[in-house]
């Protein structure tokens, strides 16, 4: 990862390795169904095929809810509507990168940083990682262990912070010789169960 020395990377990797298998085993596969995630990715990579139900399903998956429970919660209706109502103009925009998609939705909707990031991730999965509070908490912890000025706030909200996360995931997944998806699951569990809040 840019800015980290080999010694820093070794220190972080040592900390990652400590409980890697145990924490990965805590990932809630039933709550975050992998087949559903893959199905959503296939649909969103062709944005012209996305319909309201796909947006609902994507947000339900991201927030670990059933479709029915998501729709019962009024706080999600505005998020769903902002994507559904804005989708036709988004398609006309023809955004060609993860950054462009993220910026488009960030500037036009009242959707949360997490929701915008996830929809962007589904369209450009190699450019934008899955973003959540737990994952950011984990990278803040790991980078803090080597006093690296990472610029990731407690409540992230910028594209620069997403790029830091992406670079961290890419770098350390490669160092562990695991998929980015597996490493993302680990980071989520580390942030949820170990990293200080």
Verbal overview:
The protein is mostly helical. It has 2 domains: about 5-25 and about 130-195; about 35-125, no CATH class. Helices cover about 65% and strands about 0% of the residues. It is built from 11 helices and no strands. Helix 6 (about 75-95) packs across helix 7, helix 7 packs antiparallel against helix 8 and helix 10 crosses helix 11. The longest helix is centred in the middle third of the chain and has 20 residues, at about 75-95. The mean pLDDT is about 95.
Mean pLDDT: 94
The CA-CA distance between the termini, in Å, is 24 Å
β-strand number:
0
Rounded Rg: 17 Å
The topology string of helices and strands comes to HHHHHHHHHHH
- Secondary-structure content class: mainly alpha
* Biggest sheet descriptor: none
Low-confidence stretches: none
Strand content: under 5%
- Overall shape: it is globular
The number of helical segments is: 11
Q: Helicity level, as a percent range?
A: 55-70%
**Oligomeric state:** single chain
Tell me the domain tally. Answer: 2
């Amino acid at each position: 990862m840019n800015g980290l020395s080999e010694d820093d990377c070794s220190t972080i990797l040592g900390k990652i390795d400590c409980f890697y298998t145990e924490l990965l085993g805590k990932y809630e596969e039933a709550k975050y169904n992998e087949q559903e995630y893959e199905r959503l990715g296939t649909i969103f990579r062709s944005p012209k095929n996305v319909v309201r139900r796909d947006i609902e399903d994507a947000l339900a998956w991201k927030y670990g809810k059933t479709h029915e429970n998501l729709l019962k919660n009024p706080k999600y209706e505005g998020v769903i509507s902002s994507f559904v109502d804005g989708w036709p103009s988004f398609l006309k925009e023809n955004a060609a990168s993860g950054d462009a998609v993220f910026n488009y939705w960030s500037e036009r909707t009242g959707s949360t940083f997490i929701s915008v990031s996830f929809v962007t991730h589904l369209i450009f999965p190699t450019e934008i990682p899955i973003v959540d509070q737990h994952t950011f908490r984990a990278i803040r912890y790991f980078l803090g262990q080597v006093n690296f000025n990472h610029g990731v706030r407690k409540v992230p909200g910028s594209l620069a912070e997403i790029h830091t996360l992406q670079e961290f995931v890419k770098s350390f997944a490669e160092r562990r010789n695991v998929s980015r998806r597996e490493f993302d699951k680990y980071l989520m569990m580390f942030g949820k169960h170990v990293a200080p809040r």
